[in-house]
Amino acid sequence: MRNFVKKINSSLILRSGVASLDQALLSLLSFLIAIFLIKTVPKTDYGYYSVALPVMLFLIAVQNAIVNTPLAVLLPSKKDAEQKQYAASLFYGQFLLIIPLAGAGLFFIALPWFLGVDSTQGAIAAALCLAATGILYREFLRSYFFAEETPVQVLKLDVGYVFIFSCLVALSYFTFNISVAGLFLLMGISAIIVAPIFKRRLGWAFDKKSIRKSYHENWKYGRWSLFGVIVTHIQTYSYVYLLGMLLGSVAVADVSAARILMMPLVLVESGWGKVVRPYGSKLREQNLSGIFYKRQVLASLVLTFGICLYTLLVLFASGILEKYILSEKYANSFQFIQYWGAVFVVGFIGKNASFGLQVMKDFKNVSIINFITMLITVGYGFFLIQSHGIQGALIAVIIGKGISAIFLWIYFTKSVFFTGENRIKSTVNIKWINN
């Protein structure tokens, strides 16, 4: 068994396969949660869930920017003892901020309740604050194991999480009517139960001086990454927030129901991203950035073909999917499938270049490009929603991601082949272009 695990850890294809399997498990869980809510809660409540979920993803994205992405990029350049100290410092340091912020959030959310106002939105917000510590705890461990290029550990961690969460949801469902807020609470509880089991084996020690040093090092790259994830989040989920403000939560529910049918595409994108950054960072350290560039190009082409094929299959099977997956009240959602296919195509192509620039430690250009295209996306979205409704929101996302992808690839190419020392390092590896 150990030899089999070593074989997986030594092969990019096998690591990507395990990462995709892990992401498939999580995507299946997300898919089942969405279907469960579609079948059991009013459409307005599912709309609230579709707005709250991006907020949770935003918290994870901020953690990725400041902690996890620099971890994946910088860890390969450190020696064994230094790696352990660096990871431990990042792990403990994040909670010095997460816990006070969660407490402050609960305080401000509780104020309306003290005034006698009880709302579904407030309950969901409070649940997110309570669950944040557990969710981010588990996400850090996932990122660390991916950075260590041990995706089997990630799979074990997530299998345990899914098992515990599923048991708690089933128990809650048969005991009382579980709500959207209850689901988010159970996510945090499940993570808090399973994550310490895997963290205990790492032997990390708290060191205040190391925390300051590690975050100072991270901030050099993390400040641009943080700016980048904020604007990327706004660009990616602007359609949710704008639709919620302009058309209401029912419109959000319709477009979100269409997106869950595209869930397998999310798992491929996420699984590839978790593996390719530490892999690319190792190639960078070996002066093999040209090979990394080639594989990013190839991955973009393969995934584009796969996304188009999958989109056609969903459209072909729309009648069956409406009957068994969604319901008649979400019949309108199928008219948005082709738009989602286009969103995923341009999104994945741009993501691959973004991963490449992060590996090349060029967080600044990623952030600047995403900021400009975020303004374009939000601007187009505001006007197109008013003239074309939900389709207008998705068209705005496609335009923004398309422009972003073009400029990200321009700068990724420049970073690998035409910038400073990389121009010299890549002269040998550029031979693949001529083969």
Structure characterization notes:
It contains 15 helices and no strands. The longest helix is centred in the last third of the chain and has 55 residues, at 363-417. The model is unreliable at 423-435 (pLDDT under 50). It has helices at 2-10, 12-40, 43-74, 80-114, 120-147, 151-175, 180-199, 208-246, 249-260, 263-285, 289-316, 318-324, 337-359, 363-417, 420-425. It starts with a helix and ends in a 10-residue tail after the last helix. Helix 1 crosses helix 2 (12-40), helix 3 packs parallel to helix 5 (120-147) and helix 4 packs across helix 8. The chain is globular, with a radius of gyration of 22 Å. The protein is mostly helical and 435 residues long.
Give me a quick take on this structure.
The chain has 15 helices and no strands. The chain has 435 residues and is an all-alpha fold. The longest helix is centred in the last third of the chain and has 55 residues, at 363-417.
Give me the secondary-structure category.
mainly alpha
Residue fraction in strands: under 5%
Strand element count: 0
Mass-distribution shape: globular
Tell me the radius of gyration. Answer: 22 Å
Gap between N and C termini: 39 Å
Sketch the topology as an H/E string, one letter per element: HHHHHHHHHHHHHHH
Low confidence ranges: 423-435
Q: How much helix is in the residues?
A: over 70%
Number of helices: 15
Largest β sheet strand count, sense and barrel closure = none
**What's the average pLDDT?**
80
